[in-house]
Specification:
Elements: E1 2-4, H1 21-28, E2 33-35, H2 48-68, E3 76-78, H3 85-98, E4 101-103, H4 111-121, E5 124-130, H5 146-159, E6 170-176, E7 184-192, E8 197-206
Parallel strand pairs: 1-2, 3-4
Antiparallel strand pairs: 5-6, 5-8, 7-8
Length: about 210
């Protein structure tokens, strides 16, 4: 598993709670490669396309280094995008440059059906960041489950909130699932900044 830890906002990467990647990798039982680039400066850009391309450079460099290792056969990259052409097209271009495959199992799936499939499979998902009308402090740390999905569908009608947060309305983190041997137990504080917020992890342990 390769995790990029952006120092600030990002057009291409999940940013909240990336420090939990080591616990996730341990629970799944796979190796972890971590990349910590400088701040991308994504909060003040004129050309979003160029910004997205630039943000991929540290990951591409890390993948090239992995591929050069004699004990690693790099076959491809998995992307979790559902509707973001901005992200998926850039990841595909990177894979083409590296001569590897892009695996995007969630691409163009119906968002409600996809959410329900994750619930049925036994994933425990927590909301770790919100930034949209209708999502207040009470959503921070909330379990993303069938009840939350119902509330999000109501907010979609009122505010246009995507039920999977594909527009950046919210970010999630998987703390348990069928692929994990141990659950990630979180202790956190909710940090609210007027119209957006995130959880600040105080402690995290495998249970």
């Amino acid at each position: 598993m390769l995790t990029v830890h952006p120092a600030g906002d990002s057009y291409m990467y999940h940013t909240p709670a990336t420090e939990l990647a080591a616990l996730a990798a341990e629970s799944v039982g796979i190796d972890l490669v971590e990349v910590s680039p400088d701040d991308f400066g994504a909060d003040d850009v004129d050309d979003a396309g160029a910004q997205g391309d630039a943000e991929l450079e540290p990951m591409e460099a890390a993948l090239r280094e992995i591929a050069a290792g004699s004990d690693v056969d790099l076959a491809g990259v998995t992307a979790g995008a559902v509707e973001s052409e901005f992200q998926t097209s850039r990841i595909q271009a990177m894979c083409d440059r590296l001569g590897i495959d892009l695996f995007a199992p969630l691409w163009q799936r119906d968002p409600v059906e996809l959410a329900e499939a994750m619930f049925d499979a036994g994933f425990e998902i927590r909301i770790v960041q919100v930034a949209a009308y209708g999502l207040d402090e009470s959503w921070l740390g909330r379990r993303y489950d069938a009840d939350a999905l119902d509330d999000l569908l109501a907010l979609r009608e009122e505010y246009g909130v995507h039920p999977l947060g594909e527009g950046g309305e919210f970010e999630t983190y998987v703390v348990d699932g069928p692929h994990m041997d141990r659950r990630i137990d979180l202790t956190y504080d909710a940090v609210w900044e007027g119209d957006r917020g995130h959880v600040e992890i105080r402690d995290a342990q495998l249970k």
